[in-house]
Write a structure and sequence with these properties.
Blueprint: E1 2-5, H1 11-21, E2 27-30, H2 38-44, E3 48-51, H3 62-82, E4 86-91, H4 114-129, E5 133-138, E6 141-142, H5 150-159, E7 164-167, E8 170-172, E9 175-176, H6 177-192, E10 199-203, E11 209-210, H7 211-228, E12 238-241, E13 249-251, H8 256-262, H9 269-289
Parallel strand pairs: 1-2, 1-3, 3-4, 4-5, 5-10, 6-9, 7-12, 8-13
Antiparallel strand pairs: 8-11
Catalytic activity: dTDP-beta-L-rhamnose + NADP(+) = dTDP-4-dehydro-beta-L-rhamnose + NADPH + H(+)
Cofactor: Mg(2+)
Keywords: NADP, Oxidoreductase
């Protein structure tokens, strides 16, 4: 199976490349650009086009959100012209107001923010105009490298001694970029073999948690590992932010449909963070030794 991945520096693109390198049944073509023409897509002739998510759209500049929406629309037109399946990954932040219960796939986000509504319009167009699509809604991605790699950003800030300000009253499911990449490749291979299970899916980690609790766990685990390496590092402090004073905002995705359709189980974020921190420490030790 040949896949074309856009936005080469994105943490999900790098995770897909790592996962594909471990397999003999997947070939990736990765492009720096964030949109592609029908002519270029026809020349490359992939079995699917994958677009990584715009990270943190709630806090992104409106112009960046609009540019991402326009790029996805251009990709939609190219996919329609060449009959190429389209995979668009989307941030869970489009569920701007959250929900008391886990959010099912059939629930279309209805944000109040005008630029976020632009992304909803793109999703509506994809659903209405092109059957061969996967809209994959992800929790906040974390990874050790690449653009929007939340974990690496957090580690760098803590090591620099900077204060890390994180919301304590927003509950979500942190999503490992590596686990998401493994799931996406599994889903696409099943589609390539004739599954025809197109549509919208939720793909996030298990165990809902606040950003502050996630960051606290990372800080504690990082301190423990640095101590084990014999390093005395004064990590930066954490500051809890509260934006929703009446009750926490819950943005928890129900991932039942991806399990039923593709057999994809969600990976616990704690295990993934532990694995990544072990990898980070190994790299740090190797770098010091060299």
């Amino acid at each position: 199976m040949r896949l074309l991945i856009l936005d080469a520096g994105h943490c999900l693109s790098l995770a897909l490349a790592r996962e594909a390198n471990r397999r003999s049944d997947t070939r990736l073509m990765i492009e720096e650009r964030q949109a592609i023409s029908a002519e270029a897509l026809a020349e490359l002739a992939p079995d699917a086009l994958v677009i990584p998510p715009l990270a943190r759209p709630i806090s992104a500049e409106p112009a960046a959100v609009v540019a991402h929406a326009e790029a996805v629309e251009a990709c939609l037109e190219a996919c329609r012209a060449t009959h190429t399946p389209l995979v668009w990954c989307v941030s869970d932040q489009l569920y701007e107001d959250g929900h008391d219960a886990p959010i099912d796939e059939h629930v279309i986000p209805a944000p109040r923010d005008e630029s976020l509504r632009r992304l909803i319009q793109v999703g509506d167009r994809i659903r209405q105009q092109y059957a061969e699509h996967l809209i994959v809604r992800l929790g906040p991605l974390f990874a050790l490298d690449g653009a929007s790699a939340w974990l690496s950003e957090l580690i760098d800030s803590l090591l620099a001694g900077d204060e890390v300000r994180v919301a304590e009253d927003v509950i979500f499911c942190p999503t490992s970029a590596d686990a998401a990449a493994m799931a996406l490749l599994g889903m696409l291979h099943q589609q390539h073999c004739g599954a025809k299970a197109w549509g919208a899916y939720h793909l996030a980690g298990t165990e809902p948690v606040s950003g502050y609790t996630f960051a606290s766990m990372v800080r504690t685990q990082l301190a423990t590992r640095l101590e084990g390496l014999g390093e005395q590092v004064e990590l930066g402090p954490l500051k809890a932010l509260n934006h929703h004073h009446d009750q926490p905002l819950r943005r928890v995705l129900n991932c039942r449909r991806v399990l039923e359709a593709f057999g994809v189980h969600q990976k616990p974020w704690r295990l993934e963070v532990g694995r990544m921190l072990d990898t980070w420490c190994h790299g740090r030790s190797a770098g010091e030794a060299s």
